[in-house]
Design brief:
Layout (H helix, E strand, L loop, with lengths): L5 H11 L6 H12 L4 H11 L3 H10 L11 E6 L2 H5 L2 H12 L6 E2 L5 E6 L11 E3 L2 E3 L7 H13 L1
Parallel strand pairs: 1-3
Antiparallel strand pairs: 1-4, 2-3, 4-5
Helix pairs in contact: 1-2, 1-3
């Protein structure tokens, strides 16, 4: 069973005319449409656009914005840079992981609503510790504030 639409990928190839000159843009579009870069989607793109599979994987694994595994609808990034680390960012990470049911403190929830990742610095050191959910940044956090972070996103999913 395919996790992507061949016609959608064909449209992206046509949109950029040449898969190699706009490889990153094409991969971004595929990821946006599919939620991640599945093995099947990459293989189909490689064959259809005549781009070596090794080149696609080189790009997809080099840039952190690409994911080869399914991601949740909401990306949760917990900063573990120096300022956040000093202000107990690791404790925030573990609390977020527990609240999302992710024992490894990274990964995607079973319902694919959230993906949790650790990041080294968000450039918000004066607000440490910091969590970013999609484009929303939450600073000066403590563990008791963590559950409230997800209420809005869970509510939006139900609506």
């Amino acid at each position: 069973m395919e996790s992507f639409s061949r016609s959608t990928i064909d449209g992206f190839i046509k949109k950029y005319q040449n898969g190699t000159s706009s490889l990153i843009a094409t991969l971004q579009d595929i990821q946006e449409a599919c939620g991640y870069l599945s093995r099947d989607a990459i293989a189909y793109f490689s064959a259809s656009a005549h781009v070596p599979l090794s080149k696609i994987y080189c790009i997809a694994t080099f840039y952190r914005s690409f994911s080869l595994t399914p991601r949740g609808k909401n990306l949760v990034s917990v900063c573990l840079g120096t300022a956040c680390h000093v202000k107990n960012g690791e404790n925030i990470l573990h609390k977020v992981g527990r609240d999302l049911g992710l024992e490894a403190c990274e990964g995607t929830t079973d319902d694919r609503l959230f993906t949790l990742e650790k990041v080294r610095c968000m450039g918000c050191c004066s607000m440490a510790p910091v969590v970013r959910i999609n484009d929303d940044t939450y600073g000066n956090l403590n563990q008791s504030a963590v559950p409230k972070l997800f209420a809005h996103y869970r509510k939006a999913e139900k609506e």
